[in-house]
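Task 17 of the worksheet. Students: predict the tertiary structure of the chain below and write it out as structure tokens. Keep your answer in the requested format; marks are given for formatting as well as content.
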Amino acid sequence: FVEAVRNPIGGRPLREIVSARDKLAIVIPDLTRPLPTDRLLPWIFAELSHVPLANVVIINGTGSHRINTQDELARMIGADVLAKVRVENHNSHDANAMAYAGRSLDGKPVYLNRAYVEADRRIVLGFIEPHFMAGFSGGYKGIFPAVASIESIMHYHRADAIGHPRSTWGVLDGNPTQDQIRWNGSLVPVDFLVNVTQNRKRQITRFFCGDVMHAHTAGCAFAKETAMVACEKPY
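Model answer:
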């Protein structure tokens, strides 16, 4: 981990990006995603030891899913971190918790979590695996739809996008679902990506950290090589 965040892919080292004065938002996946967040967060805070924990908010990226309970959050991120750091369950249905981020590729307004938008620096956590409509998980998907409003999420999930033939496993280029993720997720700058790949035992196999696009692209190539099998004819 230390090697990955100090020599990132396409960006500056993590500890140089966040200053002691910055308000920092860290977005994590919710309980439906098997990321070992409880291991990653202490490593991140050790690397950012110069940043007061009072300046940090951890945003649980629920998307349109239900919010997680305190017991679930304790299991996800660790009771010690939960006791010391402010944690906010994203609620896509709470309009007061949203802030305008910009417009989608087709001109629709996009609203994202207010605490996320108003932060000075933003880190997103996630893991990369083949995804049935986004091509691969990870990258900007940890932001959009994870911390978006329900209206933005429903528009993202519209039939003509997710039903497109290129909205499928292992496809990034020309994938209208991934295009939305990357456009909407980058409306507010993400300063650092922490993505991992995992095996079926939930062991981390590799880190992909740094610039969102560069690190995610590298991670997707690795996931394609290690988690997909080429077929000679349609299965």
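Marker's comment: Strands lie at 24-29, 56-61, 86-89, 98-103, 109-113, 121-127, 130-131, 135-136, 192-198, 204-210. The chain has a mean pLDDT of 97.
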